[in-house]
Amino acid sequence: MRAIVHDSYGPPEILRVEELPRPVPGSGEVLVRIHAAGVDPGVWHLTTGKPYLVRALGFGLRAPKLRIRGLDLAGVVEAVGPGVSRFAPDDEVYGTCDGSYAEYATTSQDRLARKPAGLTFEQAAAVPVSGCTALQALRDSGRLQSGGRVLVLGASGGVGSFAVQLAKASGAHVTGVCSPGKADLVRALGADEVVDYTRDDPTDGPGRYDLVLDAGGNRTLGRLRRILAPGGTLVLVGGESGGNWTGGFDRQLRAVLLPPIGGRRVRAVAGKPNHDDLAALADLVEAGSVVPALDRSYGMDEAADAINDLMKGHVRGKAVIRIG
User: Fold this and answer.
1) Numbered ranges of CATH 3.40.50.720 in the chain
2) Which residue did the predictor score with more confidence, 152 or 53?
3) Residue pLDDT, tens place only, 249-262
4) Dihedral-angle region of residue 238 (phi above 0 means left; psi in -120 to 50 means alpha; beta otherwise)
5) How far is CA 92 from CA 265, 289, 314, in A?
6) SS3 sequence, 85-106?
7) CATH class for domain 130-269?
8) Which ranges in the chain are annotated with CATH 3.90.180.10?
9) CA 170 centroid distance within chain
10) What integer pLDDT is reported at residue 74 of this predicted model?
11) How far from 262 is each of 170, 213, 230, CA to CA, in Å?
């Protein structure tokens, strides 16, 4: 099979397509013939090994432990291992695996769900990581309620584009923050109000939001917490600011130490896609409440371009890589 690999940390241009043996599913595992794989900031972090905290978290100190990159996937079940009960060969699925930038990959059946009907494989591959992260951030950490006021910073990105739609589907009043060139996308996703951060500072003014989801990652915790209504919650998702050692993770680390003030909470979220949440997202997609904001797809030999475009802010919503 063909796979996108690297043997050392470096810029995305270090990635290359190589022929590798096809994996064999073990107990509880599914072998998926991958049609498309999503691109998210985590791919950049694991390719470059930055911030260095990523290496210390077990992904390899001097070189990546896993040669194949990629996490999101959409494809067709090729074979199943012993003990698999949810899927059978020829089922169309989506979810995650360790190394989705390959024509075949094995993964636990608990990391997959049926592909939403009506979506192409490329659209489906845009959902798992960003969609599950947004869902868990709003529902579990943010305690989202109908009628609440929600502010989404980074509303035109992967997580943000799903957060806007999920919040609206829950009956919230949603304000999305983005650059002027992406305002039309955020409005199309259902935002009640759109703030152009180049003209207005969304952290100005009195506290009025019940939930602030920050997927932008460059504002101070103090300013973000100030705009929360009493009892409101600030949820941090990722962040690309900061230095080489902790990068954008420094805010998440500090958030853990912040006590509630006036009932205002700060929470940090690292999405964990799982079967139940993937199935819930599939239901929302099929009901028309959520639509993947897929900007464009890239070929396997364009993986570096896909990652660079994402990190430079050139992607509206999500990007995916066509596999095979």
Assistant:
1) 130-269
2) 152
3) 666 666 666 666 66
4) left
5) 40, 21, 30
6) CCCCCCCEEEEECCCCCECEEE
7) alpha beta
8) 2-127+292-322
9) 20
10) 98
11) 25, 19, 6
